[in-house]
Amino acid sequence: MKPTALVAGNWKMNGLASSQAELEALGNYLRDGDTADCGVLICPPFTLVASFAANAPEGVAIGAQDCHTNKSGAHTGDISAEMLRDAGAAFIIVGHSERRADHGEDSALVCAKAEAVLAEGLTAIVCVGETEAERDAGKTLDIVLGQVAASVPAESTPENTVVAYEPVWAIGTGRTPTVEDVAEVHTAIRGALVERFGEAGNGFRILYGGSVKPSNASELMAADNVNGALVGGASLKAADFNGIIDAYR
Ligand code: PEP
């Protein structure tokens, strides 16, 4: 059965308390527009998780962008999945390419973080994706499938894990792969999940991320094995994010 789609916003290091207005505006769009046949998620910076979760409009889930592998302890500046669950997060993104690049996170660490998310009963969004040099060298599927194999925990199920394919060169650049290229990678990820998890592999949501905007969302979301979007820049404005959700109305 085709999984229910998810449109997730990753606010990265953007957003102040005043951003609550954008969350409310998104709630109004969802309430006033035709019903969207997808889940909707906003992952603000840590400082906003608790207030957003407390004030989330109906139909909007709140998540976080990273977590530590441990529950608690001497890890200055870090935050645990347990703390994020306590603050009201339902999802946690792990292995975003900005964390892999800026913080040297490898797939083994990403997998350990995803396991920490699952242990709290939350859903992990596990990010994978190739760099431009890797794509140019014809290594896209090797890199992406290698990351999927090493980053997705053995305990993953369609309910507790989402995979996000985000070509690094498409993030924040305004460039996207062709729909055919997206479909090829997503179908390969689907195959790897079915090989590993059996029939359950068909139930995992595989999101596409990288310069998704209202003008390209419909064609990208219609590609084979694309079950939603992980959206950076265009998730910051409720009107733009709602325009992407339109792909599911
Ligand atoms: C992201 O960073 O997850 C992302 C997809 O960013 P953008 O939509 O801005 O390319």
UniProtKB/TrEMBL annotation:
Listed GO MF terms: triose-phosphate isomerase activity
Family matches, as CDD domains: TIM
Domain of life from the UniProt record: Bacteria
SUPFAM superfamilies the UniProt entry points to: Triosephosphate isomerase (TIM)
Main location group: cytoplasm
Cross-referenced Pfam families: TIM
List of catalytic residues: H96 (electrophile), E166 (proton acceptor)
InterPro entries: Aldolase_TIM (IPR013785), TIM_sf (IPR035990), TrioseP_Isoase_bac/euk (IPR022896), Triosephosphate_isomerase (IPR000652), Triosephosphate_isomerase_AS (IPR020861)
UniProt pathway: Carbohydrate metabolism; erythritol degradation; Carbohydrate biosynthesis; gluconeogenesis; Carbohydrate degradation; glycolysis; D-glyceraldehyde 3-phosphate from glycerone phosphate: step 1/1
Subcellular location: Cytoplasm
Keyword Methyltransferase: no
Reaction equations catalysed: L-erythrulose 1-phosphate = D-erythrulose 4-phosphate; D-glyceraldehyde 3-phosphate = dihydroxyacetone phosphate
Keywords noted in UniProt: Cytoplasm, Gluconeogenesis, Glycolysis, Isomerase
Protein residues bound to substrate: N10, W11, K12, G172, S211, G232, G233
Enzyme Commission identifier(s): 5.3.1.1
Function: Involved in the gluconeogenesis. Catalyzes stereospecifically the conversion of dihydroxyacetone phosphate (DHAP) to D-glyceraldehyde-3-phosphate (G3P).
Self-association state and partner proteins as the record states: Homodimer.
Family indicated by similarity: Belongs to the triosephosphate isomerase family.
PANTHER family named in the record: TRIOSEPHOSPHATE ISOMERASE (PTHR21139:SF42)
Name this protein carries in UniProt: Triosephosphate isomerase
